[in-house]
Design goal:
Tetracycline Repressor, domain 2; Arc Repressor Mutant, subunit A; 2 domains; homodimer; 223 residues
Chain lengths: 223, 223
DNA sequence: AATGACCGTATGTACGTACGTTCGGTTTTT
DNA sequence: AAAAACCGAACGTACGTACATACGGTCATT
């Protein structure tokens, strides 16, 4: 079913046309949508998607219940937007930081640093992404999986190159190795507390080092 | 509020007293409770706790909706029982397998093998444990956390001993190392498919090796 | 310059439903 | 006959969503 409601595509057509004219007191359409999505993200991260009622989201975002449905046509669509934005931002950020880095070992360090850093800066969003993938269904679920798949492929490519360059004869399963890394990274939301624990950079360094030593079997600095 | 419904305590008081007199009652009661909990576990693992309605659980377990409430006084209590049983079984199994193993490196191998093996044999239950901790509230939540804490302490002890014996001067954070391991293990439910992937033993070996190389920085076999 | 059609934004309210839980009673077991 | 196990039917509620409406701008027409 195709919605007749607005929900414009960001950074696409209609954007300039509408935004150029006037930036309201309450901000542009995208700004307001962002504000709402951020409020929703925080609430969902706190209580879970199932228990985050649209009424509670509305209260959190300081809009009326009906007002929410001006920005998306269903609760699931809202969750989809949250996940899509977070993941796109994660992947784009990573792609950008990888520019010019050719050594695969360094690429992995960059990838882990980018992930942990992005996590520390957007904890709620990444928590929602880690926890609520299966709350999406149908096409939205497929699309969310596709985004994850891109991220996996990117990382898997780095892992492959590390193996090929350093231990091409290794019998370790590269898929398993990659999933172990993702497990380590995606589990962060269960325990990492930036107030209590060490800095994201420190954590990232330890994770990188452990992973690299783990797959290479030896230190990559000297030894 | 204290329930007046049955829900006997397993392996506690009442056990001998009741079991000696009429062993088949207790047996059948627990068997039936188990059957119900297993059905619920499978459903919750499939669709999530929030979307697993008591009506659906009842259908899955082939009992009436009201009949469920003969075994526990609330949905949350049901989830609590599922998690408690799975975790107790996990920890007891591990404690047993650790008997007589003194080398901490070997202890870690045993721990990982036990976890992966237990996971492969009880995927639904461990998936629920990994995913639905926060669906518990109040005292049940505290108790579930306590069980996890025991598991953490057990593992952390092994990690500590590995560090102390092999790299006492290492600056790696042992808490972070332990949480990375848990991340790797607890993320299994997101990707591991026993039909598609290698055997649990193979996976466990790779995880152990990677982790050990990771924290030791060198191979523990030769090198 | 005034008018009026139109659109985007926002709201209050109500509908239908699915949920967790309870109650009173019936069947089954001991 | 007492107790345990189980059930059908209902209750109250909270939820996602739809509907009817209103306000304030924009813009083409007058």
């Amino acid at each position: 079913m195709i919605s007749h409601r607005p929900e414009r595509l960001f950074e696409h057509e209609r954007h300039s046309e509408a935004a150029n004219r006037k930036s309201d007191i309450r901000g542009t359409y995208d700004e307001r949508l962002n504000r709402i999505l951020e409020a929703a993200t925080g609430l969902i991260a706190r209580v879970g998607y199932g228990r985050a009622s649209m009424r509670a989201v509305a209260k959190e975002a300081a809009v009326s219940l009906a007002g929410l449905y001006h920005y998306f046509d269903s609760k699931e669509r809202m969750l989809f937007l949250i996940q899509t934005r977070a993941f796109n931002s994660l992947v784009n950020n990573l792609r950008e930081k990888l520019l010019g880095v050719t050594d695969p070992v360094e690429q992995l360090r960059v990838m882990v640093r980018a992930h942990v850093g992005h996590f520390a800066a957007n904890m709620a969003a990444l928590k929602v992404c880690s926890h609520e993938l299966d709350s999406l269904t149908g096409a939205a679920h497929d699309e969310a999986r596709r985004l994850r798949r891109d991220y996996y492929d990117l990382t898997r490519g780095i892992v492959d190159r590390i193996y090929d360059e350093h231990t091409p004869e290794s019998t370790l399963d590269r898929h398993v190795a990659t999933m172990c890394l993702f497990g380590t990274l995606n589990w962060l939301y269960r325990w990492y507390d930036p107030k209590r624990d060490r800095s994201p950079t420190t954590i990232a360094n330890q994770i990188s080092s452990q992973f690299l030593h783990g797959v290479l079997g030896v230190s990559n600095r000297g030894c």
